[in-house]
Write a structure and sequence with these properties.
The protein is an alpha/beta fold and 314 residues long. The chain has twelve helices and five strands.
Length: 314
């Protein structure tokens, strides 16, 4: 028997044809063009939001008054005279052009800016609230704070300010500023790394003589050439106290809100040289040191960060 020819499928049985997409041969040029297009689209997706965000970042207006709170560093002690304050060379409110303080940089934007230096040589954290009250009475719109070196640099390790006491005092001063100057901008500079001072000065006979003769920062600088385990451990503990002070500042400033800015340990981390401290006491920043302080701190200020954002958008 012969086989019957195959039946033609009915419409229900007929297979549904697949959509045929013509295959293109990928040449090197095609691959490169596709990659370039993808890169451009990806860059556009990334750049547009960043640019839009940067355009919204504007520098805050420069206030009519600013005040600086702190100790002998902010008073620029020994920066121009023998064992005397030299506020004209202060990193914060100084008027000396070579230092280029926060005040001078901001006055270039607002010629009516008035600066008050409320810091006091020898001040400790216990004095900060009183200085904050003075800044409130002056109606400062911008306040800089650098306080704590004298709380770690004491006659002995045992006489250093405790971290708990430092935090209580610092919180009290910041509360005074927030309640008395609710719209003011507050910049907090970290306490310098005093162990760095020991490290750069311990091989200098002049520095060692000054530290010993004037009893400077003996908690850190006593027996500067000793490598004994006890002295090494003492220096490390004093340095850790400074680190703890700076952590308090960072924490409280973050809790304060957007009107407070901590320098991110810029001052603490700066590798200053012996040539940037006074040749009279080998402890306080000289004019060169004050210039560096102004540079390092202003680069983290409210106005500098806004400027960086605008440049990124351009």
């Amino acid at each position: 028997m012969g086989q019957s020819p195959p039946r033609r499928p009915t419409p229900r049985q007929r297979p549904i044809p697949r959509l045929l997409i013509p295959r293109r041969r990928l040449t090197p040029t095609t691959v490169a063009t596709t990659a370039l297009t993808t890169a451009v689209l990806t860059a556009s997706l990334i750049t547009i939001p960043a640019t839009a965000q940067a355009r919204t970042a504007a520098a805050p207006p420069v206030p009519a008054r600013m005040a600086s709170l702190g100790d002998s560093i902010t008073r620029a002690f020994n920066a121009c005279g023998w064992y005397s304050d030299c506020p004209s060379r202060s990193w914060s409110t100084g008027s000396t052009s070579s230092v280029n303080s926060h005040y001078l940089r901001l006055r270039a934007q607002n010629s009516a800016l008035t600066a008050y230096n409320d810091a006091r040589s020898g001040a400790k954290i216990a004095d900060l609230d009183g200085q904050a009250q003075t800044a409130v009475s002056q109606q400062a719109g911008y306040v800089t704070v650098l306080m704590g070196a004298n709380d770690a640099c004491t006659s002995s390790e045992s006489s250093m300010t405790s971290v708990a006491n430092y935090e209580t005092r610092f919180r009290a001063a910041m509360s005074t500023l927030r309640s008395g100057l609710p719209n003011a901008l507050v910049f907090v500079a970290s306490v310098p790394d005093i162990k760095r001072l020991w490290d750069v000065g311990r091989t200098s006979a002049a520095a060692r003589t000054a530290w010993s003769t004037f009893g400077i920062c003996q908690s850190m600088l006593a027996n500067p050439t000793s490598t004994a385990a006890a002295d090494t451990a003492r220096r490390d503990r004093v340095r850790q106290r400074v680190i703890a002070f700076n952590q308090v500042q960072a924490t409280v400033c973050a809790e304060y809100g957007p009107n407070c800015r901590f320098d991110g340990n810029a001052v603490f981390s700066y590798p200053f040289a012996l040539s940037q401290v006074s040749g009279w006491d080998y402890f306080h920043p000289n004019a060169s040191g004050q210039t560096v302080l102004a540079q390092q701190t202003y680069a983290r200020s409210f106005w500098a960060s806004a400027l960086i954002s605008r440049k990124a958008a351009a």
